[in-house]
Amino acid sequence: MIITTTQQIEGYDIIEYLGLVGEQTTLETDEIYKVLEKLASNRGANAIIGLIVHPITEVSGTRYYTSSDTFGCYAYGTAVRIKQIETVLPQPPQDCLPKVNLIQPDLTEKAEPQKIMERWDMKINQWDMQE
């Protein structure tokens, strides 16, 4: 499942918005992602967008105060169903592709490195003369 703070996911289309998912917990911040993932997947989602995570340090009635002494957090985002965008790259016209002729050494005879190098040098020199 993809979980992101952004409203879109590059390379994906949002197929369906499935509603807000959220949780308040005394768990570690990393563990809240697992809880949200389960809540979203129960709705049929395969991603959560617009995620916001707030640390909680003190609870007074229904109001939360935050500081560096976090003992929990609440998090929420939008559960969505996404589909990867299929991109089809355009093919270049055939007449603009370079024409390449591969020259391979004759492997039927016993490989003698010196002779092979001489043949390659000779072919390279022929190419230089043609240009």
Give me the secondary-structure topology.
Layout: E1 2-3, E2 12-25, H1 29-42, E3 47-56, E4 58-60, E5 63-65, E6 72-84, H2 113-130
Parallel strand pairs: 1-3
Antiparallel strand pairs: 2-6, 3-6, 4-5
Protein traits:
24% helix; two-stranded antiparallel ribbon; elongated; four-stranded mixed beta sheet; alpha+beta; 131 residues
Fold and architecture overview:
- By secondary structure, the chain is of the alpha+beta class.
- Helices cover 24% and strands 34% of the residues.
- The chain has helices at 29-42, 113-130; strands spanning 2-3, 12-25, 47-56, 58-60, 63-65, 72-84.
- The protein has a 4-stranded mixed sheet with strand order 1-3-6-2, covered by helices on one side.
- β4 and β5 (63-65) form a beta hairpin.
- The longest helix has 18 residues, at 113-130.
- The model has no long low-confidence stretch (mean pLDDT 77).
Question: Helical segment tally?
Answer: 2
Number of strands: 6
State the distance separating the first and last CA atoms: 56 Å
What is the element string, with H for helices and E for strands?
A: EEHEEEEH
Percent helix: 10-25%
Structural Rg:
31 Å
Range of strand content: 25-35%
Shape: elongated
Quick structural summary:
This protein has 131 residues and is of the alpha+beta class. It contains two helices and six strands, in the order ββαββββα.
